[in-house]
Amino acid sequence: MRGNNYLIINKLKDLGLEISFEERTDFIGFKVKPLVIVYPQGEDDVINIVRLAREFRISIVPWGAGTSLTGAVSCDGCILLDMRRMNKILEINTIDWYVRVQPGVVLDDLNKELSKYGFFFPPDPASHYMCTVGIIATDAGGMRALKYGTVKDWVLALRVVLPTGEVIKVGEPLKKNRTGYDLVHLFVGSEGTLGIITEAWLRIIPLPKRKVQTLIVYLDDMETLAKFVYEVRRRGIMPELMEYMDPYAINAVNQAFNSGLKVADGGLVIIMIEEDLIDELLNIRINGLNIVTINEEGARRIYELRSRAGEAIKAVYGSFYSEDITVPISRLAEAIIRLKELGDKYRKPMPILAHIGDGNMHPHILYKPGEEELAQRMYYEVARIAIELGGTISGEHGIGLQKRELLYEQYLVRNNIKTLEVMKNIKRLFDPNDIMNPNKYIY
User: Fold this and answer.
1) Distances 353 to 296, 317, 399 between C-alpha atoms, Å
2) H or E segment at 199?
């Protein structure tokens, strides 16, 4: 460490900022090798850090809880901005139905506090027990996205520190607001490439009053899965959530958490549904289905198991890349068949978790040391299946480092390169010095 590096670190110390020095690894295994890690306590700290980064033309990368699955926080020699000290719930408004928070608030902690007022924030990515409100930057989805949408549907306004160190507020904490361009949703999902979110106004709603019942649907084969999803959609049934685990994923959960779930050849679907819709669901007649109703304690347990299934896969099978394709429901059967063929082609198990009700699937590409290139090839082939079927390479995990080239491919196939150029121009406009999470997102 020489020259400017010493100067940068000393200036950070002079600002009274808490700093540390260590390498990190995100959840999926991407290396994070910052020059220094800084722990801002509030917006003024973020402003000072960004101004310093701009002065020395050093990259700056925000870190929430390290739950990225695409290398979005990977860096080498950056200032890593660990936002977890900024974890205050600033306001809960039960008349206008919003909560104002800092980005370091853990999602489960937020909902625990909201529940005291009879409210909740619906988005629930599988990492809800550890991820922070910083998931705004990835537009995370989760298990309830089928009914409630992704994070972008719940963000009303933001305070953002721009790459210049200036602060802007975009949006208003109102259900309706049509003044100017929609800059709120420009920052939602931008993965830290345009600015640093320091405060958010999030829409909240009352906890459901109608009772919800949980059912497990065991499947004889994966083809039955597609038929079942089609029929639920055709009948206009809207579950609270509709989640899938294949046999490999069930085995991992059983081994990691001693859960004792039945391992059906086609896997299982977890459905949470309002009680008055259960009869309609039970009237679905498809060979190869076995629908089981479970009690409230069982429902809490199965929800937790599905939330931590990725963790179980990592513990049991080792390293993996987690894919995140979404396909039209009408092409779901083709996607399932082609994914199975791909696993057979490489003679490798490919555990699949899915928010199956909206066609968002997470095939897990397993690999051992020395198999990284093979895993990356499979990862790309899975994404190309989605592109060919009219789907997308990312439903909720984002682009990060790992999907830059695939984003280009998707836009090229859709004859949409001009849109990609517009995105690049937006990045240049906001961040001409390219200090905000560079080399990510746009290829």
Assistant:
1) 23, 14, 19
2) strand 196-203
Mean pLDDT per block of 10 residues along the chain (443 residues) reads 80 93 90 96 97 96 92 94 97 98 97 98 92 94 93 97 98 94 96 97 94 94 91 93 96 96 95 92 91 93 95 95 95 92 93 95 95 95 97 94 94 94 96 94 78
Q: Same structural domain for residues 153 and 78? A: no
- Verify that 32 and 136 share a domain, yes or no: no
Contacts of 412 by beta carbon, 8 Å cutoff, 6+ apart: none
Which contiguous run of DSSP H or E holds residue 218?
strand 212-219
| Element (DSSP H or E) covering residue 365 | strand 360-366
C-alpha Rg value of the chain to the nearest Å? 22
* CB-CB contact of 437 with 191 (8 Å): yes
Question: Which domain, by its residues, includes 78?
Answer: 4-84
| Sheet containing 31-33: order of strands | 24-25, 31-33, 75-76
Residues 190 and 61 in one domain: no
Report, in this order, helix, strand and coil percent for the chain, each rounded to 5.
40, 25, 40
Task: Assess whether 251 and 339 both reside in one domain.
Answer: yes
The β-bridge partners of 291 are 217
Q: What is the pLDDT of residue 383?
A: 97
Residues in the chain: 443
Residue 172 in any domain: the answer is yes
Contact assessment for residue 94 and residue 206, using Cβ atoms and an 8 Å cutoff: no
Q: What is the DSSP string of 75-142?
A: EES-EEEEGGG---EEEEETTTTEEEE-TT-BHHHHHHHHHTTTEE---B-TTTTT-BGGGGGGT--B
Domain count, the chain: 3
Give me the pLDDT at residue 1, please.
44
Q: Please indicate, yes or no, if residue 408 is contained in any of the structural domains.
A: no
